[in-house]
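Hi R.,

Here's the chain you asked about this morning:
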Amino acid sequence: MSEIATRVAGLDFRNPVVLASGTAGFGIEIEDVVDLDAVGGISTKAVSIAPRKGNPALRVSEFAGGMINAIGLANPGLDEVRRDYLPWLPAHHPGTRVFVNVVGNSIDDFAAVVDAIDGMPGIDGFELNVSCPNVKAAGLEFGADQRALAALVAAARGKTPRPIFVKLSPTLGAGIADTAKVAVDAGATGLTLVNTMPGLVIDTHRRKPKISFGSGGLSGPAVLPIGLLATWRVSQALPGVPLIGLGGVSTGDDAVQYLLAGASLVGVGTAALRDPRAPERIARQMAAWAQREGVRDLPSIIGTLQWPS
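And the predicted structure, written out as tokens:
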């Protein structure tokens, strides 16, 4: 029998499948449609200090290669999240690991959210979304400014001993490995690779963008090769650093590709929005692949991609 349980960043996961931030709320919202005991973990909806209404509708639109969205990081804000949302998942599904996704407009914002949540029981770690605007640096994303990124990660690390994963943008291209190293050197435990890819989908009848914000974040099958390459590049530059591979995972084979490229965990997002049973199906398919291939311990294949010489 093949074993698909894994241990990452000092935490035990029943399987490598993690629900991606922004697609599963705080768990309670999807209780009736997703088996939260069939996944390894969840990255929550983004949490900011103040509530965010997000962007006006239409926020999401599908296209042949996946989905484009501009939600605008809508969330109830730190106080309400602490009181009404975060206690639920550890109380009802204690075997499912919980990473809290954190956003902010400044370094102090990130540190404050981490500090306020760190003492709560059942929270296993944090995921820092550094693809949001840095209003103190002329609108640059934190992830595109290595000095700001290092300061942000160091500030968050000063507020918690728990694992911190930094979620990077695919727009960094070949430079993503350098940025990942900056994050790890500043105190990050690992990286989430990758965030959505900026894109545009047009309604040809109205001659306008399909979503109200105009451009948005591209996710779904079209992003799979981008996420895989980013994961491979970072795993080669930072061997042994835990990675959450994210982008375009719809099947167990997709997930196995991320493990081969060097990911320790695999995020599932858009696929779960289309089919709430996808995460548990993907976990089963990973186990079936391992059994067919004679792999007794699925984590043993992490980073074993054989690159052409």
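The chain has a mean pLDDT of 95.

Let me know if you need anything else.
M.
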